[in-house]
Amino acid sequence: MAAQRRIDLVLDSVKRLLRIGATANLLNLLQKQHPADLAQVFTDLADKEREAAFSLLADRNGRLAMEAISELGHEAGSALLATRPAEEIAKLAQEIPSDDAAALIDNLPEDLSNAVLDLMRPKESRVVEHLLEYAEQTAGRIMNPNVFALNEDMTVGEAIIELQSNRDVEMVFYLYVVDERRHLVGVVSLRRLLLVSPETPLKRIMTADLISARVDMDQEEVARQVAAYNLLAIPVVDEENKLVGIITVDDVIDVIKDEATEDIYRLAGVSGDERVFTPAQESLRKRLPWLGVNLATAFLAAAVVGIFTGTIDALPVLAVFMPIVAGMGGNAATQTLTVIVRGIALGELSWSNSRKALMKEATVGIGNGVVLGLVAAVVAWLTQGDAVLGLVLGAAMVINMFVAATAGVLIPLGLRAASIDPALASSVFITTMTDVFGFLSFLGLATLFVQHLTRAH
Amino acid sequence: MAAQRRIDLVLDSVKRLLRIGATANLLNLLQKQHPADLAQVFTDLADKEREAAFSLLADRNGRLAMEAISELGHEAGSALLATRPAEEIAKLAQEIPSDDAAALIDNLPEDLSNAVLDLMRPKESRVVEHLLEYAEQTAGRIMNPNVFALNEDMTVGEAIIELQSNRDVEMVFYLYVVDERRHLVGVVSLRRLLLVSPETPLKRIMTADLISARVDMDQEEVARQVAAYNLLAIPVVDEENKLVGIITVDDVIDVIKDEATEDIYRLAGVSGDERVFTPAQESLRKRLPWLGVNLATAFLAAAVVGIFTGTIDALPVLAVFMPIVAGMGGNAATQTLTVIVRGIALGELSWSNSRKALMKEATVGIGNGVVLGLVAAVVAWLTQGDAVLGLVLGAAMVINMFVAATAGVLIPLGLRAASIDPALASSVFITTMTDVFGFLSFLGLATLFVQHLTRAH
Known about the structure:
The structure is a homodimer. By secondary structure, chain A is mostly helical.
């Protein structure tokens, strides 16, 4: 954790220098940092401090300030950027690659982003606007349009000269080869250039069978390809197979993290684009619908209990044990659901093996139900002195945990079949299901055996 | 999704060729696939088919079979490998880089892995055993010890010749520079070699200020460094700063996925190393303790209800509404908990801004409580014709959702302060907490106002 310690030291110094107003020293310190470290420092500062430090750095070293902001994540980055006037944002946006600029501008409030686009140099704002035309979460939206390509008629020697005169291009390790109309025809690794003589035509050493992404490909699919084939970058082509951009592995890492976050959030009934510091009002607006749906379904569960108020009236002790059946079912269902949803996301679960997964989870569900049902039955028997109550509780738990396991497999698989994100089969829904079946099985069995149950109180 | 369609076609052909026993055609088809595609095909086959296809391929093209197995993930990969005799595994293990071999061998049943190590060539088994000595989830465990390094006294021309005679080394794009005792002293990018004359000494063009990982560094921290600084690889050094290995970005992507999976699982009370097809018995063994803890805490919640059986006896309708208070609190708590735990994992939440997060979540909690409490109150009033019952229900929901929000922030932060993984503050625990407070607030308020509540039934 040496890196963390170093960042903590920088953070303390930044806070101190801000407090005593030592602008020159502060600027000096900030300029020595890597953009990623600056992003971490910005994250850890209070709002006022962050804005002060950013404004100082943006004035003097716009590129570094913008690189740090790009590393902050789009939402937090845009929020910080939005504290500056439109003229300054327009100038700053031109300091970074247009894909990063597009992502930041896209997250600005709409008035501000329009003003910024108007104020940018026409050529650059056109590139940004063009990128923003691609649908969100597609290859086109995250690619860098500034891709280095070589003509197929070049020799290795010419390629090296071309490379030497383009020192600015982002991370070059695969050299894409195009024909005269910019159709992608092959790829040569940088290393390969070193291993052959300068007169060799590129055509001879290039690999023609290469993996590319269409501009409209979902970013999750792009990430899957890069990860599966261990690529460092993937070329992006339009519908005519013309090379229009490149997505590098560092951007893919961001996509993988974002998609994992989205899955984690959706499973918990949180919108995929929420973050820790999304304003309270916006979080409220995003979470309320989920909770509202759940309230409706909770009333459904309550209605099930309502059917049995006669039984509860006769035996109030049932109210003590009914949350156990529902709660344990909910937890078991969440376990199964999570394993299945993640299995789908990681590509481990397909149609042909879903029956096997169902059998497995059903077995686990019954196993858990039997063990825990037995324990609960004994506890209920010993504390209430009623063996039948114990049996009813234990049996209800076995039933509900079997239901939990099957629903935990079938609901996400069903959603996927309907082309809905399986992570949306969130715990919120599945818990309601296990509540309903929990109450139904426990209170139902209790009603059946009511004359055998002793009124303990 | 063209890639998926292609894999589905291959899958169908493999199944058909297996069925009709067309071994030569099958082998031909398998050998044409990329290892990653083969891994996907293996995943989608039934157990028997997978073993048959793998055994066929392993006989003829051991390297490709092992590369496919490496892409399968360690658990599934080892399970498939374990279907072969030890002698064959020992031979196959030597076909792939020793870090991949070590991971696969480590996941074999212990008897088998010992037998395999005994049967491997002494030099290779020594490398694998050495890797397995590093603690799990550290840089040493995931690095490739076969790292290409150049001596600092070389010239660029000598470096290129060295590179040309080492065509086998994994993904070379950063060339690490070491002194005569193999201390890591710098790095040169492959691209830089192309831009200077052959007589230039490496020392002059290398970057001495480079980021490296210690062998004992946690893999999550390694991944964070690679992602933060947009690296394609990170060199691994021992305590004396001697270069001992390299971790490439493709391995980092696996770590990021695994760590996200671990977080997702732990939040749901599932062990981080479970997978969809972990055998039922093992899944049962892994999940039972979590559910057992939850059963104990569920009895705690039941005991809280037990305090109020007198009130429920007087008003059985309370049993209908009490799951709503508990359930809504549980869902709200899960939302907050998830945002906070993920925020910690992504480095967005630090000590200095945790107070801000608490304030935000408390605001959201109260806001959600007021809106949903009001709706629930009105529904209870209208359906039961009792305004006081509605008020008690609404007030209990506000209280419980405030508790949910604060606990959802404080429990994971507290766990982190105690150096425990915050994801372990799983929904399992937090749900119990909201059950207890939900029952306590609802039944407690009902008891206070019991003479104002009408006995509807």
